[in-house]
């Protein structure tokens, strides 16, 4: 990955409390109703919550390019949050996260992955379809902020 002519290496790492200020900035630029700091901190305490960040490092600095949170419950993986910093979108970061989620899920004996996505979020729906997810259901007016339906997508592991 390249930005401002610097070579950048990408490492997927565990999220920690120290990452929350950067994560909250990405969250705010990504969602109509962003999660609060308390919601992220809560996820970090849940044993079955997998909280990951992409650390982008150059010779000058290391920053967070995006994050993924999913739960493994019994033999299902549930995606709870995924966002990529605007300046690093369309460079494969989210696809990389989805591959990592699948790998971790497979190692944990998970049979299927699921998620909910706003019907209007065409970018994310394209990403998920590309990763093998298909729409299997709908939750009417699930998003109360925009009165929007959620599409329920599933993929086998
Ligand atoms: C959706 C999101 C996570 C994608 O992240 P990303 O790192 O840019 O995605 P990738 O580069 O891995 O893209 C993978 C595929 O997704 C689709 N895609 C991603 N962004 C797209 C866009 N703006 N327009 C059309 N298709 C898009 C494409 O099929 C793309 O493959 P391609 O680049 O070969 O065409 C990012 O746009 C984001 O953070 N959006 C705001 C938060 C959000 O909506 N999260 C999902 C909540 S359910």
Task: Report what the structure shows.
The protein is of the alpha+beta class. The chain has one domain: 3-Layer(aba) Sandwich (Aminopeptidase). The chain has four helices and nine strands. It has a seven-stranded mixed β-sheet with strand order 3-4-5-6-7-9-8, with helices on both faces. Strands 1-2 form a two-stranded antiparallel sheet. Strand 1 and strand 2 form a beta hairpin. The chain starts with a strand and ends with a strand. The model has no long low-confidence stretch (mean pLDDT 95). The protein binds coenzyme A (COA). The site of coenzyme A has 18 residues, from strand 6, helix 3 and helix 4. Coenzyme A binds next to strand 6, helix 3 and helix 4.
| Major β-sheet strand ordering | 3-4-5-6-7-9-8
**Named CATH topology:** Aminopeptidase
The helix/strand order is: EEEHHEEEHEHEE
CATH architecture: 3-Layer(aba) Sandwich
Q: Report how far the terminal alpha carbons are from each other.
A: 28 Å
Structural class: alpha+beta
Question: What compounds are bound to the protein?
Answer: coenzyme A
Largest sheet: 7 strands, mixed
């Amino acid at each position: 990955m390249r930005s401002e002519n610097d070579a950048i290496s990408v490492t997927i790492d565990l999220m920690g409390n120290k990452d929350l200020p950067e994560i909250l900035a990405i969250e705010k630029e990504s969602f109509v109703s962003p999660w609060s700091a308390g919601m992220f901190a809560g996820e970090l305490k849940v044993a079955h919550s997998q909280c990951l960040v992409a650390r982008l490092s150059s010779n000058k600095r290391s920053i967070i390019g995006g994050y993924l949170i999913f739960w493994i419950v019994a033999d299902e993986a549930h995606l709870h949050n995924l966002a990529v910093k605007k300046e690093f979108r369309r460079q494969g970061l989210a696809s990389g996260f989805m591959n990592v989620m699948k790998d971790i899920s497979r190692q944990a004996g998970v049979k299927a992955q699921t998620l909910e996505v706003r019907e209007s979020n065409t970018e994310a729906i394209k990403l998920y379809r590309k990763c093998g997810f298909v729409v299997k259901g709908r939750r009417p007016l699930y998003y109360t902020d925009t009165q929007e339906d959620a599409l329920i997508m599933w993929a086998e592991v």
